[in-house]
Amino acid sequence: MQSIVINGRFLGQPLSGVQRFARELTLALDRKISAGDLPASLKGARWRLAVPRNTPIDIRLSAIEIDSFGSAPGHVWEQTSLLSRARGSRLIGFGGSGPLLHRRQAVVIHDVTIFRHPQSFKRSYRLLHGALGTVLTRTAKIGTVSAFSRQELSSVFRVPSAGIDVVYNAVDHFAAIEPDDTVMQRLGLKTQSFFLLVGTMKPNKNLAFAIRAFETLKAEDQKLVVVGGSAPTVFKSDNQQSAGSLLFPGRLSDAEIAALERHATAFIFPSLYEGFGIPPLEAMTQGCPVLAADIPAVREASGDAALYFDPLRQDELVSAMRRIATDEALRQDLRRRGHENVARFSWDDSADCVLSILEDL
Fold first, then answer.
1. pLDDT-based confidence at residue 244 (cuts at 50, 70, 90)
2. Distance from first CA to last CA of the chain, Å, rounded?
3. How far is CA 2 from CA 103, 233, 353, 357, in A?
4. CA 143, CA 106: separation in Å to the nearest integer?
5. CA quadruple 325, 326, 330, 331: dihedral positive or negative?
């Protein structure tokens, strides 16, 4: 019986975009296996999700068995325990890494931010993942999350783009969330009285740029809610009047974020560099108008469903915020376009791409 192993190290990592991608694709594959919706060459295979021993298992699978083993940390586990356990099997990893000596594997590398914005990462992280990418792009089947990232990977690692498959992100999981509206009362917010930012203070995320633009806007009837990105100890406003309009609630649940998106004047996505750009699409599932940085990956993902601005020109974002706050027809149009745009992506379609990659192995 042939064996297919999924690198499940993501289960023990904090949930961010990469881990969400891995989790949702694993769930989509599990649904397809359970339904028998597989290419003929993969039917009858034994599917395993390999995870380091003692990893919390918070994912429900019907057809993919959980295989817990090995006690080495992180990348050491991949290069030793996983390598040994997956010997003779097809192996796929969704998080940009895998055992370098395994010669029948596929790896999804999401972007090359470590090369384009190195200041966002520690030197040790850059060196490790740069080395992994260099080797894996020459020994493994590579996938990535957008046509833009495919070109970036080809350029940085000097490999043919034709050999890199695109497996898009999707947002079906977010569309199905039941919003937790209690967050509105807790933060003292009213419908269409605030702009929403979700992200971290990494330089490439450009959150400080958006915060400064909001201060310049001087909109007395609007606030700016920055989720997960900062706290007053990290960002201190020089403008005491606008400081009272800046809210930093820290990390929130998906249900709380969904509720904020349903009531926000607009969602702001000011990033300087992305491999795909999933937060704007999540906002679109909740009917939230999106103001997005005009960068290639975000254009590819958001299409004509966002109002774009140059993420280096503060005046463009100020103008976009002022326009969206006063133009109800524009907000309605972006809501409609947003719902149409997210329909282009689904985890089931992306799982079909993964199955095709596994066939090629």
1. confident
2. 16
3. 16, 54, 20, 16
4. 7
5. positive
- Quick check: 164 and 145 in contact, CB under 8 A? no
| pTM of the model as a whole | 0.91
- Look at residue 238 in the predicted model and tell me its pLDDT: 45
Asked whether the beta carbons of 154 and 283 are under 8 A apart, the reply is no
**Percent of the chain residues past pLDDT 90, beyond the cut:** 90
Residues 106 and 54 both lie in one domain:
yes
**% of the chain at pLDDT higher than 70:** 96
Residue 235 has pLDDT above 80, yes or no: no
Q: Show the CA angle centred on residue 186, arms to residues 183 and 188, nearest 5°.
A: 105
The arithmetic mean of pLDDT across residues 96-123, rounded, is 94
Domain that holds residue 7: 3-170+346-360
- From edge to edge, which strands make up the β-sheet containing 290-293? 246-250, 223-227, 194-198, 266-269, 290-293, 307-309
Residues 323 and 203 in one domain: yes
Are 153 and 184 part of one and the same domain? no
